[in-house]
Amino acid sequence: YSGRVRPGRQSPRRTVPNGIPKPDYWKDGQPKARGPLLPWQIEVKSERDIEGMRAAGRIAREVLDTAGNYVRPGITTDAIDALVHEATIARGAYPSPLNYHGFPKSCCTSVNEVICHGIPDSFKLRSGDIINIDVTCYFGGYHGDCSETFLVGEVDDEGKQLVKATYDAWQAAIAYCGPGKEYKGIGAIIEDHIKPLGYTSVSHFCGHGIGSVFHTSPNVIHTRNNEPGKMEVGHTFTIEPMINEGTVKHIEWQDGWTVSALAQSARGRSGHESFAPARYAYVIPRTPCGANG
Predict the structure, then answer these.
(1) Could you give the CA distance from residue 186 to residue 172 in angstroms, rounded to a whole number?
(2) Residues 88 and 137 sit within 8 Å (Cβ to Cβ)
(3) Tens digits of per-residue pLDDT, 200-255?
(4) How far apart are CA 145 and CA 126, in angstroms?
(5) Rounded distance between C-alpha atoms, residue 21 and residue 2, angstroms
(6) Over the chain, what is the mean pLDDT?
(7) With contact defined as beta carbons under 8 Å apart, do 209 and 215 qualify?
(8) With left for phi above 0 and alpha for psi between -120 and 50, is residue 112 left, alpha or beta?
(9) 69 SS3 class
C-alpha cells in the first residue's frame, strides 16, 4: 500500500430482483457481447441507440447525485455502495459493475491515492479525504456511465486544486471533440493542460467506447499517443483522465482491482473523477448545433 487507504471488510454481494433486465455477465461474470476487434473499428450508434444511452445516462446521473449527497466524514464506502445499489434497482436498472469480470460491488469508490477501481468496504471516510464514486447503470439494453469526485469535510487547498485541474482538463478535452477530430488529440489536450501545473496523467488506464457493451473501442488515452481513429457522428465514448500529484507509477492490490499511486504524496484523481460527471458517454451530434449526453 502507498498511503492511508487500506482494504476493509466487504459485505456480502448484493442481489438484483428477478424482474430487472440484466447484462449478459450478471451470473457468471463473463461478458459475452463484444465490440469490434480492432481499436479503429468503432460502432456508429443509431438514433435509437443514442436515445437508449441517454435514458441509461440520466438514471446513472440521478444515482450518482444521490450518492454524492450522502458523502460526509464517518460513513463507510460500503454504505455508499448500498445506497447506489438500492437507488439503481429502484429505477428498474442493473448496477453495471456488479459481477463484471467478478467485481464484487455495485460501484467503485476510490479514495485519495487510489486511482481507480476501489472496492467499497468498511473503510470510513475522514474529513480531508477526496473520494470518487463511479456509477454505471444498465437500463433498456445500454450502459450509462458517470462519476464524480467529492470533497469530504474540509479538504486542503492542494486537494481542491488537483480536483479542479482535472475537471478543467476534462472540459478542454470535451471542447476539442467533434466529427473528424482524431482520438489521439484528446490526450494531447489533457497533457498540455495539466503538465504546467506539475501534475501527471496516467496512461495505463483509459477511456473507452460504450453502449450496449460496457467497454469497447475506441481506446481514449489521456496522454500523448498514436492511437488510430477519428470521431464520427454516432460515436459514443468516455473521457476519464487520471491526474496525479507526482508519479504516474502505480501498484495493484491483491484484490485484483484496486489501483493506487505508488508514492504516498501522489494522490491520484481521475478526470472521470472530478467535481462534475467526467466519465460519461459523449455523443457526437447528428445535428450541426451539437449536443452531448
Answers:
(1) 9
(2) yes
(3) 999 999 999 999 999 999 999 999 999 999 999 899 999 998 999 888 889 999 99
(4) 27
(5) 39
(6) 89
(7) yes
(8) left
(9) helix
For residue 220, give the C-alpha cell: 481514449
| Residue with grid cell 460500503, as numbered in its chain | 78
Residue 278, SS3 per DSSP:
coil
- pLDDT higher than threshold 90 for residue 120: yes
Q: How far apart are CA 5 and CA 112, in angstroms?
A: 8
Cis? peptide before 218, omega within 30° of 0: yes
What distance in Å separates the CA atoms of residue 293 and residue 288, rounded to the nearest whole number?
15
β-pair type (199-201, 242-245): antiparallel
Determine whether 240 is exposed, middle or buried from the number of CB atoms within 10 Å of its CB (0-12, 13-18, 19+): buried
Q: What is the pTM of this model?
A: 0.91
123 φ/ψ angles, rounded to the nearest 5 degrees: -60, 130
Here the cell at position 53 is 444511452
Backbone angles phi, psi at 239, to 5 degrees: -120, 120
